[in-house]
Design a protein that fits this description.
heterodimer, A: 273 residues, mainly alpha, MetI-like fold, two-stranded antiparallel sheet, 13 helices, 2 strands, B: 265 residues, 10 helices, 72% helix
Chain lengths: 273, 265
């Protein structure tokens, strides 16, 4: 019966493992403007990427946006997740559906929505002008990108947190309340520590999504705003330096995974004490 | 008072997620080409206009073909794999299970780039075009549809023990009869959910397609991205609205088959 696995495993090996191995091999090659690529084994592309001030800037922008968006999503998502988790009766199903639904709609469509709202002649600026204020440039700023990314990742955060909060018995909160704890104390001493696995899992998932965002920074950040994922594609589409582009892709992958694992370990250790 | 503010705040969070979709749906009915608020009037004509724009009509048909074939393949291959993962015992099972779900964990951008260089190498080796063809896009999108099917079918199979299958076998049913009469009906909700989710994931995917499309062979999300880099107008909003409505309908169908809150975690 294990043979039933064979087609799926072969597909993943051929279409994911082999291409990823090839891309990694490319990242160790040398680039030449005339021959494009020369086989070699050199860390040169990685060193060039981390010593180039432009790509440092791109990486720093990416990290700033990802950290801020993750933190905002956590702060906004926690109360929403709590309400969803503790909700009972006939509204729970529709609210869950309403949370999952945006996840299925592509990021391009949702970025188009924010362009409608934030554009120079968009809804918000029209409203400001109607109230007698001058317009504000909102599009093509880091703020617009963060707003766009936060609303893209919020449903992931809410659903991950809600599934953990659901497993915390309501009795624990009621007991604390009966013993005289105020709502904020109940949150700080009971709900937050018990939902920590959800906080860690949700933040890790959301951070990874933010680091790799493509459509939102391209459309809401504009041509001069660069994050890592669009920078990787530019190397393949606009220039011919594939070894360098491959190195950028793996730097993005390693930085994301490294920070996610370090962050999860740190959060968990802090609360075990 | 406090309770009201608390509820209002939580309501605002859910509203903020839905707001951009509502805005783009509203824009699609504006009676003027250049956006200004409030609108001068409302019209349906951008929907006709969207269909007359070649890149959107062709992109829609391409994405539909791609998602249908990729989801069809994914459901076959993924259901077989999920059945083996849940019912069979063999060494390395946990590792293979992780391997089959791993394409969802690799960033789309990195995977898309890897597929691009891989296809270039294969093209050089066998002298057949793969980039900018439907088979090339299908090969890439199967990496979305197989893991989603495995995840959803395995979850639905875990809920039902092998007792009914064993009983049928003991009563003399042949393996094929057991599969057709017992296993398949039991798996139905998982398979339907897997098919619908796979379809949506493939239809809406941007990152894997971005480097693999070509002139005349582009997907709807890529065409929309290219258009949006220059402008947002009611025509594009109409294209976006059609997708929102299509996905909403598919989600309502899926909701009848699986517990949606279990889909993400």
């Amino acid at each position: 019966m294990a043979a039933l696995l064979l087609p799926a495993v072969l597909l993943v090996l051929a279409m994911m493992v082999a291409p990823m191995a090839l891309l990694f091999r490319y990242s160790l090659n040398l680039y030449s403007p005339t021959e494009l690529m020369i086989a070699a084994v050199t860390p040169g592309n990685y060193l060039a990427a981390v010593t180039d001030p432009y790509y440092w800037g791109v990486l720093r922008t990416t990290l700033t946006v990802a950290f801020e968006a993750t933190l905002i999503a956590l702060i906004l998502g926690f109360p929403a997740a709590y309400v969803l988790a503790r909700m009972q009766g006939r509204w729970k199903g529709p609210l869950t559906l309403l949370t999952v639904f945006p996840l299925m709609v592509g990021n391009v469509v949702r970025a188009a929505g924010w362009m409608t709202l934030l554009g120079n002649s968009g809804v918000l600026n029209a409203a400001l002008k109607a109230m007698g204020f001058g317009g504000i440039e909102m599009m093509y700023t880091q703020g617009a990108v963060i707003v766009g990314i936060v609303t893209v990742v919020l449903p992931y955060m809410i659903l991950t947190l809600a599934s953990v909060i659901e497993s915390i018995p309501v009795n624990a909160e009621e007991a604390a309340q009966n013993l005289g704890a105020r709502p904020f104390t109940v949150f700080r001493r009971i709900v937050l520590p018990l939902s920590l696995p959800g906080v860690v899992a949700g933040s890790a998932l959301v951070f990874i999504l933010c680091m790799n965002a493509y459509a939102t920074p391209v459309l809401l950040g504009g041509a001069r705003f660069k994050m890592m994922a669009p920078a990787v594609y530019d190397q393949f589409v606009r220039t011919t330096n594939w070894p360098f582009g491959a190195a950028l892709a793996f730097i993005l992958l390693f930085v994301t995974l490294g920070l996610t694992m370090a962050g999860s370990a740190l959060l968990q250790r802090r609360y075990r004490r | 008072m406090r309770a009201v503010m608390w509820r209002g705040g939580v309501g605002a969070v859910f509203a903020a997620v839905l707001l951009p979709m509502v805005a783009v749906m509203w824009l699609s009915f504006f009676d003027q080409e250049v956006i200004s608020f409030p609108p001068e009037g409302y019209t349906w004509r951008w929907y006709v206009n969207a269909w007359e724009k070649k890149q959107f009509a062709r992109g829609f048909v391409n994405s539909l073909q791609l998602a249908l074939v990729a989801a069809g393949l994914g459901v076959f291959v993924g259901t077989a794999a999920a059945y083996a993962l849940v019912r069979a015992e063999f060494p390395g099972k946990a590792f293979l299970g992780t391997l089959l779900l791993s394409p969802l964990a690799v960033p789309g951008v990195v995977l898309g780039t890897a597929l691009y260089v891989f296809f270039v190498e294969v093209e050089n080796a066998i002298d057949i075009d793969i980039r900018a063809t439907l088979p090339g896009l299908i090969a890439a999108h199967v990496l979305l549809t197989v893991p989603w099917t495995v995840r959803l079918v395995a979850a639905s199979l875990q809920g039902i023990g092998p007792a009914a299958e064993e009983a049928a076998a003991n009563l003399g049913a042949r393996p094929w009869t057991v599969f057709r009469r017992i296993t398949l009906p039991m798996m139905r909700s998982g398979v339907v959910a897997g098919a619908l989710f796979s379809f949506i994931q493939s239809f809406e995917n941007l990152e894997l397609s971005l480097l693999l499309v070509g002139p005349g062979r582009s997907t709807l999300p890529v065409e929309m991205l290219n258009y949006l880099e220059f402008r947002i107008d009611p025509t594009l909003a109409a294209v976006a609205t059609i997708q929102i409505v299509l996905i909403g309908a598919l989600m309502l169908v899926t909701d009848r088959y699986v517990n949606l809150s279990r889909v993400v975690s």
